[in-house]
Amino acid sequence: MRLNRYIAMCGASSRRGADALVAEGRVTVNGAVVQTMGVDVDPDRDTVWLDGRPLQPEEKKVYIMLNKPAGYLSTCRDDRGRRTVMSLVSGVDERIFP
Protein backbone atom coordinates (compact mmCIF):
# COMPACT_ATOMS: atom_id res chain seq x y z
CA MET A 1 0.00 0.00 0.00
CA ARG A 2 1.21 3.52 -0.71
CA LEU A 3 2.66 5.36 2.26
CA ASN A 4 0.34 8.36 1.86
CA ARG A 5 -2.69 6.07 1.91
CA TYR A 6 -1.42 4.32 5.05
CA ILE A 7 -0.88 7.66 6.83
CA ALA A 8 -4.40 8.78 5.86
CA MET A 9 -5.81 5.43 7.03
CA CYS A 10 -4.18 6.04 10.43
CA GLY A 11 -6.01 9.36 10.68
CA ALA A 12 -2.90 11.56 10.72
CA SER A 13 -3.85 13.58 7.63
CA SER A 14 -5.34 13.36 4.15
CA ARG A 15 -3.38 11.65 1.37
CA ARG A 16 -2.26 15.00 -0.03
CA GLY A 17 -1.35 16.14 3.47
CA ALA A 18 0.63 12.94 3.93
CA ASP A 19 2.67 13.77 0.83
CA ALA A 20 3.52 17.13 2.41
CA LEU A 21 4.58 15.40 5.65
CA VAL A 22 6.91 13.12 3.67
CA ALA A 23 8.35 16.09 1.76
CA GLU A 24 9.05 17.84 5.09
CA GLY A 25 11.01 14.79 6.30
CA ARG A 26 8.65 14.10 9.22
CA VAL A 27 7.90 10.44 8.31
CA THR A 28 10.13 7.44 9.00
CA VAL A 29 9.62 3.87 7.84
CA ASN A 30 11.54 1.16 9.69
CA GLY A 31 13.77 3.81 11.26
CA ALA A 32 14.76 5.54 8.00
CA VAL A 33 13.48 8.98 7.01
CA VAL A 34 11.46 8.73 3.79
CA GLN A 35 12.46 11.32 1.21
CA THR A 36 10.69 10.15 -1.93
CA MET A 37 7.01 10.01 -2.80
CA GLY A 38 5.27 6.80 -3.76
CA VAL A 39 6.95 4.50 -1.24
CA ASP A 40 5.08 1.27 -0.61
CA VAL A 41 4.67 -0.09 2.91
CA ASP A 42 3.37 -3.38 4.27
CA PRO A 43 1.25 -2.64 7.35
CA ASP A 44 2.00 -6.10 8.73
CA ARG A 45 5.80 -5.81 8.45
CA ASP A 46 6.77 -2.13 8.36
CA THR A 47 6.68 0.41 11.18
CA VAL A 48 5.72 3.96 10.24
CA TRP A 49 6.43 6.92 12.53
CA LEU A 50 5.31 10.54 12.27
CA ASP A 51 7.17 13.14 14.32
CA GLY A 52 8.63 10.42 16.53
CA ARG A 53 5.29 8.72 17.26
CA PRO A 54 4.18 5.37 15.77
CA LEU A 55 1.17 5.34 13.48
CA GLN A 56 -1.46 2.62 13.78
CA PRO A 57 -4.51 2.20 11.54
CA GLU A 58 -7.82 3.10 13.09
CA GLU A 59 -9.55 -0.09 14.16
CA LYS A 60 -13.22 0.78 14.25
CA LYS A 61 -15.06 1.92 11.13
CA VAL A 62 -18.43 3.62 11.27
CA TYR A 63 -20.61 4.14 8.21
CA ILE A 64 -23.25 6.85 8.16
CA MET A 65 -25.85 7.24 5.45
CA LEU A 66 -26.83 10.85 4.92
CA ASN A 67 -29.09 12.47 2.38
CA LYS A 68 -27.11 15.65 1.71
CA PRO A 69 -29.37 18.71 1.54
CA ALA A 70 -28.87 21.27 -1.19
CA GLY A 71 -26.42 24.00 -0.25
CA TYR A 72 -24.01 21.76 1.70
CA LEU A 73 -20.58 20.64 0.52
CA SER A 74 -19.34 17.04 0.87
CA THR A 75 -16.07 17.91 2.58
CA CYS A 76 -14.66 18.22 6.09
CA ARG A 77 -13.74 21.91 5.85
CA ASP A 78 -14.24 24.79 3.51
CA ASP A 79 -11.80 27.71 3.46
CA ARG A 80 -14.58 30.03 2.25
CA GLY A 81 -16.89 29.36 5.20
CA ARG A 82 -19.58 27.50 3.29
CA ARG A 83 -21.70 24.87 5.05
CA THR A 84 -20.38 21.29 5.02
CA VAL A 85 -21.99 17.94 5.78
CA MET A 86 -19.83 17.74 8.92
CA SER A 87 -22.19 20.22 10.61
CA LEU A 88 -25.06 17.77 10.07
CA VAL A 89 -23.41 14.90 11.96
CA SER A 90 -22.89 15.06 15.71
CA GLY A 91 -22.30 12.60 18.53
CA VAL A 92 -19.81 10.45 16.61
CA ASP A 93 -16.40 10.03 18.27
CA GLU A 94 -14.71 8.32 15.33
CA ARG A 95 -13.15 10.26 12.47
CA ILE A 96 -15.60 10.83 9.63
CA PHE A 97 -14.71 11.00 5.94
CA PRO A 98 -17.37 12.47 3.67
Main beta-sheet strand count, sense and barrel state: 4 strands, antiparallel
pLDDT < 50 stretches: none
Order of helices and strands: HHEEEE
Shape: elongated
In terms of DSSP E residues, the strand content is: 5-15%
Report, as a whole number of angstroms, the end-to-end distance: 22 Å
Query: Taking all residues together, what is the mean pLDDT?
Result: 90
Strand order of the largest sheet: 2-1-3-4
Tell me the helix content: 10-25%
What is the count of helical runs? 2
Number of strands: 4
What is the radius of gyration computed over CA atoms, rounded to a whole number of angstroms? Answer: 16 Å
Question: Which class best fits the helix and strand makeup?
Answer: alpha+beta
Q: Multimeric state of these chains?
A: single chain
Task: Offer a few descriptive terms.
98 residues, alpha+beta, 16% helix, elongated
Description:
The protein is α+β, with helices and mostly antiparallel strands. It contains 2 helices and 4 strands. It has a 4-stranded antiparallel sheet, with no helix packed on it. Helix 1 crosses helix 2 (15-23). The longest helix has 9 residues, at 15-23. It is elongated. The model has no long low-confidence stretch (mean pLDDT 90).
Task: Give the helices and strands, then pairings.
Blueprint: H1 3-9, H2 15-23, E1 27-29, E2 32-33, E3 48-50, E4 53-54
Antiparallel strand pairs: 1-2, 1-3, 3-4
Helix pairs in contact: 1-2
Question: Outline of this structure?
Answer:
Helix content is 16%, strand content 10%. With 98 residues, it is of the alpha+beta class.
